[in-house]
Each structure stands twice: as structure tokens, then as C-alpha cells.
Specification:
Keywords: Membrane, Transmembrane, Transmembrane helix. The chain crosses the membrane at residues 21-39. The protein is of the alpha/beta class and 432 residues long. The chain has a single domain (88-432), classed as Spore Coat Polysaccharide Biosynthesis Protein SpsA, Chain A. The protein contains 13 helices and 11 strands. The chain has helices at 2-10, 19-40, 101-113, 134-146, 190-200, 215-224, 286-289, 308-311, 313-328, 356-361, 370-382, 403-407, 411-422, and strands spanning 91-98, 124-129, 150-153, 174-180, 183-186, 206-212, 230-232, 281-283, 339-343, 351-355, 386-396. The strands form 2 sheets. Strands 1, 2, 3, 4, 5, 6, 9, 10 and 11 form a 9-stranded mixed sheet that branches. A two-stranded antiparallel sheet has the order 7-8. The termini are far apart. The relative contact order is 0.16.
């Protein structure tokens, strides 16, 4: 009956629509599709997400492994596919003070990954030799022969680590990124971020990366919640858990058992000496051990370039194992912040960016200690601050006072495994 009514009202002809009606319908569906593309096709990110970041695979040379980084929500660096050099910047050159092949064998993979030809930003990597060991020099010669972007500056050093002549060949118009040879992890965004920060902030004299295991920043990372409760394994692992020397060590913290002790009164000492070679540090669970982070070495750090975080290997070990946990969980955002201004106080220079003209204006360099000179003397002289770019994360293996203790753990093996799996195209050449 309703159909007969419509036929009677409309007649047998096909209904017609006005131009205004058609226009309204087209606009409605256009807006609907646009809204779906913007809001419906992506899932909101959360800082707490434990899902791995999506690899950035285009455009990359076929011999570079997919890039990864954690969300920082502090600068919009996530998701970029290429790292173009800023307009007006002549060159970007990394300077490495070389002396430790065991860590350089890992760093080499990260440096090659960041060369321009591999989708990175580095035009050149300069090596400055700081060792008299013949075998170590031979190892560097192999690296130089393999990579055209690697060059060497021959520098004669004086006594007591006199670094004054190391910067004689620095050129104006070039940004230099000074990197310690025991940087064993570099997030893919670290060089783009630190270059971006330095280039956009010429009023800063020197900009540092966010360095894990660096005395002052160790305190910052602890207060940010990035450092987790870990303690050394008291007794050697059962034979079934021992990894043969020829096999790789698993880097993931989730494979570690929980820390236990048969002695309920056992107390961690900063002077602790590891009981055996290649020992591990284990996660401390409060519900099974009745211990918290307050019972671990990190609480002895403070915001000071010469704090216990410089002198005690136990503090460094706890930080490294915490780092593996955060890396596995894709929670490197725990370390991050926007900016930390050191003003004119001493700042670590294990990974820093400076312009060549700023280095040259300070010549002749009158201090043997380049860290003191660049982070304190020159910042005060120019009234331009030293700043940490909190978005750009690297891991620093050890300082000299920490070296023997850290070497008694399996930490370096864990960084090597991670690099082999995720960074290096060719297997890392281990040298001890």
C-alpha cells in the first residue's frame, strides 16, 4: 500500500535531484573519507607501549638493516625515512679517539650505518690513534682499508693525555661529532637529532647526546625511572645456563633469572669484586627478595661530573643491565627529555657536536683536558652554554676507573650480540 502511495505521489518517472543536493552528497562523502584517513587508519601511540617500533625500510640501501627507534614524543623524529643534511651545512664529520678494538668492533657497525651512502648523515669518520699497541693499530688499518669514508689524522700526543693538538686540522663550516671509542649503542635518531639541535641553536657552544653511563646523567636517568633494581649474581649459574665461549650471549634481560641470595643479610658494597669472569647481573624482584632499588648501587650517584657514577663499576653495571631491559621492552623513552642545560658546569663529552669555527676560535687550546676546556672554559668565555639533547640516546661502555670491573661481566658480549642481530651487516670481529 505504501508502494502504491509513492507511485502515486512521484509518478512513474525516475526521481531527479537538484544540483545543490548532489553537491551536498559529494561534500558529505568526501569529508567522511578524509576523516577516516586521518583518525581511523592509525592507532594512537602510548608511551607505555611494549610493541616494537615499526622498521623504517624506505628508502634504505639493500645492505642496511631496518632502522628502529623508540617514541620520545619530544621532537617529532619518529617515522622519518631519511636524514638530510641541513641546508647550508658543509660537512658532518665524526672524530673518534681510537684505542680499544673490543668496543670499536661494535661502534664500527653504527658508524657505517650512519654514513651518507647508507642513508645517514656522516660525510666522514676521522680516527685519531691513542694507542701504542701494534695489534690494535693493525686492526684500525683493516677498518681504514675497508671503508673509503674512514680517514686517519696522525697526531702526536704529549704526556698525561694532552689533547691540545688533536683538533689542529678542524675546519670552519664543518660540524664535528666527537665520539668516544667505547660507545656501544647509538639509537638511529641520535645523529640526526644532535645535528638538528646544534644547527638550530647556534647560541649553544656544545651539545651532547643523552649518554647512558655518564656520571651526571646517571643521576638524571635514575630520577626519571630508567634505572631498574639489579644486583650481581652471587654464585655461578648452573651448568645448563652456562653459554659456551664460542656461542653468542643472549642480550635480552627477559632471559635472566631473578636475583636470589642464600644470605638474607647480604649487602651490596660499592667496593664489590666480582667472584668470577663473565658474571651476570640479575633483576631484583621485591616480592621474592624483599629488596628494592634502594638496596642497589645507583642510589650513591649524584648530579656531579665526578660523582660515584664515574668511579664505581657497580653503578655502571646496574645501568647497563637496566638498559638491556628497557631496550628489549622498547622503553628507551624512559631516558628521554627535551633539553638539559649545564650552563657553565662540567659536561661529559663522550658524544658531542661542535662547529669547526667554534673549536678554532678557542685556539690555541691551553688546557690538556679537552672536556674541561670545551664544556667549561669556552662556554664561559663565549657566554654560550653546554646543553644535552635529551632526545638522542647512546650507551657508553666504561670509564677508566670502571674498566676492570665492567670487563668481569658479560655486558660487552651482550652489546655485541645486539649489534650483530640488529645493526651489523657483517659479523662483529671480536677482539679482547
Amino acid at each position: 500500500m505504501f508502494a502504491h502511495y509513492l507511485q502515486g505521489r512521484m509518478g512513474p518517472k525516475t526521481p531527479t535531484f537538484s544540483r545543490q543536493t548532489i553537491f551536498t552528497v559529494v561534500v558529505f562523502f568526501t569529508l567522511l573519507i578524509w576523516s577516516w584517513q586521518i583518525f581511523g587508519s592509525s592507532t594512537p601511540r602510548t608511551r607505555e607501549s611494549s610493541k616494537p617500533s615499526a622498521p623504517i625500510v624506505d628508502p634504505l640501501p639493500p645492505y642496511v638493516k631496518p632502522r628502529y627507534w623508540s617514541a620520545s614524543h619530544l621532537g617529532g623524529l619518529e617515522g622519518i625515512k631519511a636524514f638530510p643534511k641541513p641546508d647550508g651545512l658543509n660537512k658532518i664529520v665524526a672524530i673518534i679517539f681510537y684505542g680499544r678494538p673490543a668496543t670499536v668492533s661494535i661502534l664500527d657497525c653504527y658508524l657505517k650505518r650512519n654514513l651518507i651512502k647508507n642513508g645517514g648523515m656522516l660525510d666522514e669518520v676521522v680516527w685519531i690513534v691513542r694507542t701504542n699497541d701494534t695489534s690494535h693499530k693493525a686492526y684500525l688499518d683493516v677498518l681504514l682499508a675497508e671503508e673509503d669514508a674512514y680517514t686517519k689524522w696522525n697526531v702526536t700526543f704529549g704526556e698525561n693525555e694532552d689533547y691540545r693538538s688533536a683538533y689542529d686540522r678542524v675546519q670552519n663550516g664543518t660540524m664535528y661529532i666527537k665520539i668516544d671509542d667505547d660507545i656501544v649503542f647509538m639509537e638511529d635518531t641520535v645523529i640526526p637529532s644532535i645535528v638538528d639541535s646544534k644547527w638550530k641553536n647556534p647560541d649553544y657552544f656544545i651539545i651532547s647526546a643523552n649518554i647512558m653511563n655518564q656520571p651526571s646523567l646517571s643521576w638524571v636517568h635514575w630520577r626519571l625511572g630508567a634505572v631498574r633494581p639489579y644486583l650481581p649474581e652471587i654464585e655461578p649459574a648452573p651448568p645448563s645456563d652456562v653459554v659456551p665461549e664460542e656461542l653468542r650471549v643472549e642480550w635480552k634481560a627477559s632471559a635472566l633469572p631473578d636475583w636470589t641470595s642464600s644470605d638474607p643479610e647480604w649487602i651490596m658494597s660499592l667496593e664489590y669484586i666480582s667472584p668470577y669472569k663473565k658474571h651476570r647481573w640479575l633483576p631484583v624482584k621485591y616480592d621474592t627478595s624483599n629488596r628494592s632499588i634502594d638496596d642497589t648501587p645507583i642510589i650513591f650517584t649524584d648530579f656531579n661530573a665526578f660523582s660515584e657514577g664515574l668511579w664505581k663499576w657497580t653503578i655502571a653495571a646496574q645501568q647497563h643491565y637496566s638498559f638491556f631491559e628497557n631496550l628489549e621492552k622498547n622503553e628507551l623513552w624512559r631516558y628521554k627529555f627535551s633539553e638539559w642545560n649545564y650552563n657553565y658546569t662540567r659536561m661529559g663529552i663522550q658524544f658531542v657536536a661542535m662547529m669547526g669555527e667554534d673549536i678554532n676560535m678557542g685556539k690555541p687550546i691551553v688546557e690538556r683536558d679537552d672536556e674541561y676546556y670545551f664544556s667549561e672554559v669556552m662556554t664561559q668565555k663565549t657566554s654560550r652554554h653546554g646543553v644535552v639533547d635529551g632526545r638522542s640516546l647512546v650507551a657508553h661502555y666504561s670509564f677508566k676507573p670502571q674498566r676492570d670491573g665492567i670487563a668481569s661481566t658479560d655486558i660487552l658480549d651482550r652489546y655485541r650480540t645486539f649489534a650483530d642481530e640488529n645493526i651489523c651487516i657483517q659479523p662483529v670481529r671480536p677482539i679482547y
